[in-house]
Amino acid sequence: MQPGKRIKSVYNELVPISVEIKELLWDIQNDEVQLEKLIVRVLTYGKFDEIKMTYDKFPNQCIDIIQRHDYISRGVKFWIRRWSEPDN
Tens digits of per-residue pLDDT, 15-40? Predict the structure, then answer.
């Protein structure tokens, strides 16, 4: 990824913030957040259980986001791809 390159948000719909991940969205004052921001924060800073919970709710969006956001860790990308395999 080039420095200063901005990734355009695709998932702009507002979703409620669950209690389990509220601390990951420290800068949001409302009870709702853009879906893409929520997923990126969870995939970047979340614990394994939070990542799995988010993937279970938004599988297609998580798969798309790991392909567009280079800075998401390799381990998170591994698990998202693993969970998305047909035999799982």
Answer: 999 998 999 999 988 899 999 999 99
Domain annotation covers residue 7: no
Quote the number of domains for the chain.
1
DSSP class per residue in 3-69: TTPPPPP----EEEPPGGGGGGGTT--SSEEEHHHHHHHHHHH--HHHHHHHHHH-HHHHHHHHHH-
Structural domain including 67 reads: 14-84
- What is the pTM assigned to this prediction? 0.89
Question: Does residue 41 lie within any of the structural domains?
Answer: yes
